[in-house]
Amino acid sequence: MKKIILFASVIGMVGTIFLQSTEAITKPEPQKTICIDAGHQKKQNLQTEPVAPGSKVKKAKVSAGTRGVATKKYEYELNLEVALQLQKALEKKNYKVIMTRMKHDVNLSNIDRATICNNAKSALSIRIHADGSTNKNTQGLSLLYPSGTSTKSINKVSESIAKTLLTESILTTKAKKGYGDGLLPRSDLTGFNWSKTPVVLIEMGFMSNSTEDKRLSTKSYQQSIVNGLVNGIVKSVQ
Ligand SMILES: [Zn+2]
């Protein structure tokens, strides 16, 4: 009798293991989607669009962006360089990545870019930018997050993600924090106000500062930005 019970329990165990393993195969972890928007494009588009749904305030569809004082690189070029590396790094971590653009010669307004990320139902949209200032000494990396009335449902979660991304990016880049504490709530950005999914914008540094401009164009520094963002995304994106 003992032998029969033992036999039956072994069969049972094998069956359980088999069920668990087939379950693991047929039910993979759902991939989280991250939408990456490399800011600006080759030609600015000064036609206007509403800054928020239903708003009478209008802003340019896509502005020119800044340019490196030392490298002479355009911001739209730098933004895509980093965006493409971020795409690769996130795909390695098994995220599904949607890119709003893969080349410079596009015509995508800020509403278009938000719409692409909304349609992708992204867990996070991350907008990649670099800063410019009339003060050549100004330096620093900062994270922007939405604070407008059209984005009430995503403001808090976006702020929380921005904080984590800032902390992790400062750890890997050793950059100064821009604008004091490196965090900026914004209610005036079209790309934020039309977003329905959590969204942040990184200003990677100031291209108007010669030292920071040159550093932003090195592969190793770009990689440190990407590493910081990936670490932050892994920690904060649910
Ligand atoms: Zn920009």
TrEMBL record:
What residues does the MurNAc-LAA domain cover? 114-234
Task: Kindly list the GO molecular function terms attached to this UniProt entry.
Answer: N-acetylmuramoyl-L-alanine amidase activity
Any one annotated GO CC term: outer membrane-bounded periplasmic space
Its domain of life? Bacteria
Presence of keyword Hydrolase: yes
GO biological process terms held by the UniProt record: peptidoglycan catabolic process
Entry-linked SMART domains: Ami_3 (SM00646)
Q: Which UniProt keywords apply?
A: Hydrolase
Q: What InterPro entries has UniProt attached to this entry?
A: MurNAc-LAA_cat, N-acetylmuramoyl_amidase_3
Q: What is this protein called?
A: MurNAc-LAA domain-containing protein
Question: What phylogenetic lineage does the species belong to?
Answer: Bacteria, Bacillati, Bacillota, Bacilli, Bacillales
